Amino acid sequence: MKEGRIHSIETCGTVDGPGLRYVIFTQGCLLRCQFCHNPDTWNMGAGKKMSVQELVQDIKSYLPFFQSTNGGVTVSGGEPLLQVEFLLELFTELKKLGVHTTIDTSAGCFNRSPHFIKNLDKVLELTDLVLLDLKHINPAEHKELTGLSNEHILDMARYLDEKNVPVWVRHVLVPGGSDNDEYLQQLSDFIATLNNVEKIEVLPYHKLGVYKWENLGLDYPLEGVEPPTEDRVKNAENILNRVIVR
């Protein structure tokens, strides 16, 4: 069985999809988000090698907890789609057990090359939900915030819509960055073009991962930026969630 590069595992997650979740954080990411709280996931060669068999064996012991809460397994990161063939094998085994499957992706590696799409399509057939991180609607601001432009990321949102894959959009609200009514309105307009979005989650920027930047010897780029106020979070939720009323 295939092996994946795994950063860590959370056995009873409550914020990465419906119900209680077994959350697998994969290693490797192409984005360099200024607010990243897991910069130790960036390096593709780090982490621990684990086989699909090892993971499935561990997951089996938690099945009663998931199934009693309509939960399941979420693969996050890092960026799980960097290990799409591993993901395919894992989800194939999980579906044999009737497990609800979720991918948490920022779509940084999405492209329409035949090889990638072929594997992605196979994975999506086994995927019940995608948590899609849309960091910023403006390409230049997105590049400033994450190191990459967002054209291919928005293209993945459209692709998931084409495939009618259920999506929850996640948006990190960063004061001085993504917390801007004009950009929030533009993001809301974009989401309104999609027919597969079931939920929009506004995630307030926080500083819980700053110590990891320090441990890695990295300068934290948002030094001095404080989390958004409750009013600004509510404002963002109101602007973005207007499109969910269908």
Automatic annotation (TrEMBL):
Keyword Ligase: no
EC number: 1.97.1.4
Record's keyword terms, sorted: 4Fe-4S, Cytoplasm, Iron, Iron-sulfur, Metal-binding, Oxidoreductase, Pyruvate, S-adenosyl-L-methionine
Cofactor dependency: [4Fe-4S] cluster
Note accompanying the cofactor annotation: Binds 1 [4Fe-4S] cluster. The cluster is coordinated with 3 cysteines and an exchangeable S-adenosyl-L-methionine.
Enzyme class: oxidoreductase
InterPro entries, per database record: Aldolase_TIM, BssD/PflA/YjjW, Organic_radical-activating, Organic_radical_activase, PFL1_activating, Pyruvate_for-lyase_activase, Radical_activat_CS, rSAM
Localization of this protein: Cytoplasm
Residues annotated as domain Radical SAM core: 15-246
Source organism, top-level taxon: Bacteria
Any one GO molecular-function label of the UniProt entry: [formate-C-acetyltransferase]-activating enzyme activity
Catalytic activity: glycyl-[formate C-acetyltransferase] + reduced [flavodoxin] + S-adenosyl-L-methionine = glycin-2-yl radical-[formate C-acetyltransferase] + semiquinone [flavodoxin] + 5'-deoxyadenosine + L-methionine + H(+)
NCBIfam families with a match to the protein in the record: PFLA
Homology family: Belongs to the organic radical-activating enzymes family.
Task performed by this protein: Activation of pyruvate formate-lyase under anaerobic conditions by generation of an organic free radical, using S-adenosylmethionine and reduced flavodoxin as cosubstrates to produce 5'-deoxy-adenosine.
Name this polypeptide is given: Pyruvate formate-lyase-activating enzyme
High-level lineage: Bacteria, Bacillati, Bacillota, Bacilli, Bacillales
